[in-house]
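Notebook entry, cofactor series.
This is the third protein in the set we're modelling with a bound small molecule. For this one the ligand is 2-acetamido-2-deoxy-beta-D-glucopyranose. I'm keeping the input format identical across the series so the outputs can be compared line by line later. Sequence and SMILES below, as received.
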Amino acid sequence: MRFLSFSSLDFRLHLLVRANLCSNCAQICTLFGYSKMAEVAVENGNDSITRVLFCGYYFPASHNYTREYLQSYPFIQVDTVALDEVPDVIHKYQICVVKSRRLDSELIAKAAQMKLIMQFGVGLEGVDVDAATKHKIKVARIPGSATGNSTSCAEMAIYLMLGLLRKQKELEISVKQRKLGEPTGDTLLGKTVFILGFGAIGFDLAKRLRPFGVKILATKRRWSSDSLPSSDSSFPNDDIDGLIDKKGGPGNMYEFAAEADIVVTCLTLYKETAGIVDAKFLSSMKKGSLLVNIARGGLLDYESVLHHLESGHLGGLGIDVAWTEPFDPEDPILKLPNVLITPHVAGVTEYSYRTMAKVVGDCALQLHSGKPFTGIEIVN
Ligand SMILES: *[C@@H]1O[C@H](CO)[C@@H](O)[C@H](O)[C@H]1NC(C)=O
Ligand SMILES: *[C@@H]1O[C@H](CO)[C@@H](O)[C@H](O)[C@H]1NC(C)=O
Ligand SMILES: *[C@@H]1O[C@H](CO)[C@@H](O)[C@H](O)[C@H]1NC(C)=O
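Returned structure with ligand:
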């Protein structure tokens, strides 16, 4: 099925009505493969439809799976709209899934029917939460520990670490050149890994890294037990001490960086963490050590990272997230030998996306029937 954006649909409806091709809306809708849901609702004389807006066509499984989950509920309509068309249509929707779209105060002011702005995941850095609060709109994320997203992200971090240790780019060259038994890679065994930002992903990562025989260092703003990821009942909070070899706060960041062979950034991006991996941080890392980022591109200072890679101080970079997305495939940083990039797929797995689609779908159903939201973490 082809999903029309609202603005183009409205335009066509307008033309059709003016041309008197048909007078019945349901017919027009059918003509254009417009959602079956709207059609049924119109036939029933029930125009109470809850509309869900997905911003932009990136991360297609997010809207596809949500639409699939809701297909038997004709009174919920799920639309995907190009990023730059969002301002023209946002006033028609009750729920907005932002993805990579920025929602500033101006745009939020236009969202006259909006009840809930949510992320398909955790990152809400593009949303002006204060403006939403002012307009009585709830803003929410889907906690990664409940959906398998953090587990997916943790596995991805390990994938990138192993890729760097085994020199993935050189491996591919060896295969092309019909070489055997080179290059010599390295093991995780015996390494020290510093998890910068011990949230849900950091926690899942530490659990999975343990069996590799690594030493684990981690920093977190507060280590109070109530701020630890709690949904994993198989792992009591008291056992954190057995999982981490050294716990620290932001003040220990440079000291831990100096001790680690691999640094993994698992922080949320906000004002205080933007560019946290800067020249000072990178030069405190060991010569030849590796850096992996599966959180947000803005955590790393681009110029400093490029410089430290070129000088050989940084032995490798593995990123699933970049400074601008989609990232320019011709960017000079990608030409360097031990740099690996993936297209923001850490959390994009069947398991995690089906679960998050269910959370979004359930929120739409709850809003429609006036029930309280479940499965999301409201931040305002
Ligand atoms: C319209 O549909 C919704 C969802 O099925 C239902 O809750 C509501 O009562 C209906 N309203 C009318 C007037 O039929
Ligand atoms: C999403 O749905 C579209 C249209 O049905 C399809 O072309 C595309 O392959 C789907 N992509 C994913 C990742 O599910
Ligand atoms: C889930 O995955 C997406 C895509 O990788 C990511 O942007 C988002 O922040 C993740 N959310 C989590 C960890 O809950």
